[in-house]
Every structure is written in C-alpha cells, then in structure tokens.
Design a protein that fits this description.
This protein is an alpha+beta fold. It has helices at 142-147, 154-176; strands spanning 10-11, 15-16, 23-29, 40-48, 63-68, 78-82, 102-109, 128-133.
Length: 195
C-alpha cells in the first residue's frame, strides 16, 4: 500500500511520556515524505492534546529519539534524534487534537529493506521505539537504554539507566586519575623485564 501510495502514512496509537506526561504518537511514512519520497522511510513525532497539558512545560523542548529495532541479533538498531524547534507550532501546547507532525524525513534509506533477510522486518512487522529525553542523556547511553526490556516498569528502567550512568562516571573518573591497568601494575618483588 505504501509503494502504490494508497496509504501514505500510518499513525501509532497515542501514548504518554509518563502517567502524568505528554500525550503523543508517531507518524510513519513507509515510502517517505516530501523530499524523502521513494528514497527513505520518514518518521515523525506528533504532540497531542492531553489531560495533563495544564501542568506540563510548553513549548515542548526535549530531545526525541526514534529507534528501529534489529530483530535478529539486536546489535544493529538504527536510531536518530532531533531537538524540537521551540518556535514551531508543532511543539506549542496543542489547541486541537493533534499538532503538526515534525521529525526526521530521512530516517532510514529504503535500500535497507531491499534484502528480504534484513533484520528490521520480520513477518511484515517492525518495531519502533520513541524516546523523550528529559535529562540530556549522553549519546553513548543509547545502546544501553535500547537493550532494556521494554516490559519493565518505567521507574525500573529509569533506575537502571541512572545506575549505568553512575557506573560509567566512576569508570571514567578512575581512567582520568591514571589508575594503572592490569598490564601496567607492578607486582611487588617482580624485577623481571619483558623480552
């Protein structure tokens, strides 16, 4: 249907960033949109009017990351992020059911899907995750975050992410202090030389 352009785009069901958070949905153009038509899959983020809007910050200013999951070895997820243009109507408090979609027109090349054994589509199904980054997470944390079981409660995922951030910070601190590696440590009483 996408190639024939009978169905130009697909909306995800609405979801929330948290139980009292932003209401949103994704919009996917399987065969591309605008200047990406027939060359890339386009993926967009849509803010929706929600019951919590009166307590939320607008314009919406948080980084949004999309991830297309590798369903075979789970090592080659495709992800890309964007920061909202806070001047755009897309990120203001919604006045109607949905704001105008905004996102990444060239999310992934259609060539990626030409091989029938590609790891992203299995049984005519692909999995896409939308993440809203409220804490300015470092890009090197994304592989860890994407490896978490999505069935875990959100608060458990957040706790695990914070623990991993702390672990990486401690590891970085040890490295910057010049802690010797195993190969550099001197063993007391060892006066031998490497030949």
């Amino acid at each position: 249907d996408a190639k024939s352009e009978r169905q130009v785009s697909i909306y995800s069901p609405p979801f929330f960033s948290s139980p009292t958070g932003y209401k949103m949905r994704a919009r996917l153009y399987l065969y591309g949109d605008g200047n990406a038509r027939r060359s890339h899959m386009s993926l967009f983020f849509v803010l929706m009017r929600g019951p919590n809007d009166f307590i939320l910050q607008f314009p919406f200013s948080y980084k949004v990351t999309f991830c297309l999951f590798d369903q075979i070895n789970q090592q080659n997820h495709i992800f890309d992020s964007f920061r909202p243009d806070t001047k755009s109507n897309s990120f203001q408090r919604p006045r109607s059911d949905m704001n105008i979609a905004s996102g990444i027109p060239k999310f992934v090349s259609l060539n990626t899907f030409e091989n029938p054994n590609n790891p992203y589509v299995k049984d005519d199904t692909m999995f896409i995750k939308v993440m809203v980054d409220f804490e300015n997470m470092a890009k090197n944390m994304l592989p860890y975050v994407l490896s978490l079981n999505p069935a875990l409660p959100i608060h458990t995922q957040h706790r695990m992410i914070h623990q991993e951030i702390e672990r990486k910070a401690q590891q970085s601190q040890l490295t910057s202090q010049g802690t010797p590696t195993n190969s550099e440590r001197k063993v007391p009483g060892d006066n031998s030389k490497n030949h």
